[in-house]
Q: What sequence folds into this?
């Protein structure tokens, strides 16, 4: 899930729950930093520019066979000036004739498919319920009456957990609009707590004041400068303690916005009435429409630009990969995506030639995970690499209570070999700030880190903007994967994953701040690889492997 709502005042610190906006007082990230190199540019990007300059001048990609990347997201603006030349086109389909020319079950699917729209194309799902709301409804019907044997069942225990979470969320979001979602509240609290701790340490005091913080000489420490900005912005609202901030934020959360109030915790809303599908028929084909942009395409358009914005065209940015096309699969609303839509989007991507799938979304419950697993296994069998964002709660995914679905682990046992789970790294210069403070992590559950803070990319209406999150780290990694595959097209998904993992720039023994908590931890404890993805090193390793 991602949420696109804006919040005002000091709450602009978290304009999106997938975004952490850097304070204006902090050093700004270079516009194209995710493509830069740590040694050459003193910026810890993926070294794509270095790769193009030093490795790829003579090793050209086959322009007749670009890598097809499916972006399962909120939608992509297909006529954006930096994207229109890289949109996938289904050459087997004739645009606008109302016929399924290629017999794939989808009519006029020229650039992909929209699983969130009505068949007539007149309506689209934008806001959606959370999965916890849908589970509350489903299990509530099942346990309308409860027997003694029910009380010992796993489903009933799940129902009690879901019921408590749903009722708490609904109570927090039962106001008259204008507030903010719980995730944004958590993020702002976390940012403030981290900032206060840094300032107290720098000033050697537990009694912070505006004057003391203002007078602090940060000596060029970008992270400390940011902490000053966070403290000053919140203090300007008369808030100078975590307790005061919590009271204000909790009150804001209780107000809610209209979308939170009316949809996310609305147990009467059913998006299938808009789409017209049968939610119990998971393998249903053809529901939805061919509007791959949808009503709100900020997130998906931003993701697509990081991967594939046309390079060297004089427009806003350069994507990581230069020989790639984007297949837009709209399946992620403002709320939680349905398992049915995610699975069918993966099936569509595989059946229509996608070689890599970008999945910048996630949620805490997955009632139809078995069907999503079928789709993942299908992609695994067909050699398609699935790359997924780890999430932005600053949590350890190795903890069994911290779920982020979909994931690589099958309910039937075993793990997908074609799956990469991506954490977010920062552009900040100091090693301690290498992992983004919001990123989920896990020594066994997160594979690798990738640039995810303050990425400047394409947004709707032919514009550009900054956003942060594992949602942005994921496409940076996808771009590297596509770049390597475009030069070494015989690589299997498993081989490509191995190369990306092995060639990552390792920081295993570097002391960093643990995301979400701020205590010191070795970077190697946050992921399987202990590294940050790197295009230059990946291409070198791919070349070495290709000679064997």
A:
């Amino acid at each position: 899930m991602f949420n696109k709502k804006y919040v005002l005042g000091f709450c602009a610190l978290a304009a999106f729950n997938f975004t952490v906006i850097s304070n204006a007082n902090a050093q700004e990230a270079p516009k194209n930093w995710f493509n830069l190199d740590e040694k050459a540019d003193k910026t810890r990007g993926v070294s794509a520019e270095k790769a193009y300059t030093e490795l790829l001048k003579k090793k050209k990609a086959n322009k007749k066979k670009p890598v097809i990347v499916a972006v399962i997201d909120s939608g992509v603006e297909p006529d954006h000036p930096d994207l229109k030349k890289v949109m996938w086109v289904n050459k087997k389909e004739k645009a606008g004739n109302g016929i399924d020319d290629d017999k794939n079950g989808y009519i006029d699917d020229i650039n992909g498919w929209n699983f969130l729209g009505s068949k007539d194309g007149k309506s689209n799902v934008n806001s959606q319920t959370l999965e916890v709301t849908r589970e509350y409804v489903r299990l509530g019907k099942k346990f309308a009456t409860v027997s003694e044997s029910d009380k010992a069942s796993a489903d009933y225990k799940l129902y009690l957990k879901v019921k408590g979470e749903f009722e708490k969320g609904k109570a927090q979001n039962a106001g008259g609009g204008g507030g903010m979602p719980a995730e944004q509240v958590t993020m702002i609290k976390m940012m403030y707590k981290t900032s206060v701790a840094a300032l107290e340490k720098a000033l050697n005091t537990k009694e912070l004041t505006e004057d003391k913080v203002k007078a602090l000489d940060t000596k060029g420490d970008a992270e400390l400068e940011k902490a000053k900005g966070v403290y000053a912005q919140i203090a300007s609202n008369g808030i100078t303690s975590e307790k005061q901030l919590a009271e204000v934020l909790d009150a804001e959360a209780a107000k809610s916005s209209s979308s939170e109030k009316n949809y996310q915790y609305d147990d009467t809303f059913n998006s299938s009435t808009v789409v017209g599908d049968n939610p119990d028929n998971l393998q249903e084909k053809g529901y939805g429409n061919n509007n791959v942009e949808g009503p709100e395409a900020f997130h998906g358009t931003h993701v697509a630009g990081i991967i594939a914005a046309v390079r060297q065209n004089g427009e806003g940015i350069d994507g990581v990969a230069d020989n790639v096309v984007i297949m837009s699969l709209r399946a992620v609303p403002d709320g939680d995506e349905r398992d049915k839509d995610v699975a069918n989007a993966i099936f569509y991507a595989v059946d229509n030639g996608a070689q890599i799938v970008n999945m910048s979304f996630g949620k805490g419950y997955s009632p139809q995970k078995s069907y999503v697993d079928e789709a993942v296994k299908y992609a695994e069998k067909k050699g398609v690499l699935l790359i997924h964002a780890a999430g932005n709660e600053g949590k350890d995914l190795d903890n069994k209570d911290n779920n982020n679905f979909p994931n690589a682990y099958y309910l039937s046992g075993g793990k997908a070999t074609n799956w990469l789970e991506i954490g977010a790294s920062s552009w900040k210069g100091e090693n301690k700030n290498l992992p983004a403070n919001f990123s989920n992590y896990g020594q066994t559950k997160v594979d690798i880190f990738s640039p995810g803070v303050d990425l400047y990319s394409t947004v709707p209406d032919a514009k550009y903007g900054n956003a942060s999150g594992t949602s942005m780290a994921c496409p940076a990694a996808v771009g590297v994967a596509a770049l390597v595959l475009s030069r070494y097209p015989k690589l299997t998904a498993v081989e490509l994953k191995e190369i990306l993992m092995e060639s990552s720039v390792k920081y295993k023994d570097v002391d960093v701040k643990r995301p979400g908590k701020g205590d010191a931890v070795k970077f190697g404890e946050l992921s399987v690889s202990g590294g940050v993805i790197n295009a230059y090193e990946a291409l070198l390793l791919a070349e070495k492997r290709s000679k064997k």
Residues 31-127+279-546 form a domain with the Rossmann fold fold (CATH 3.40.50.200).
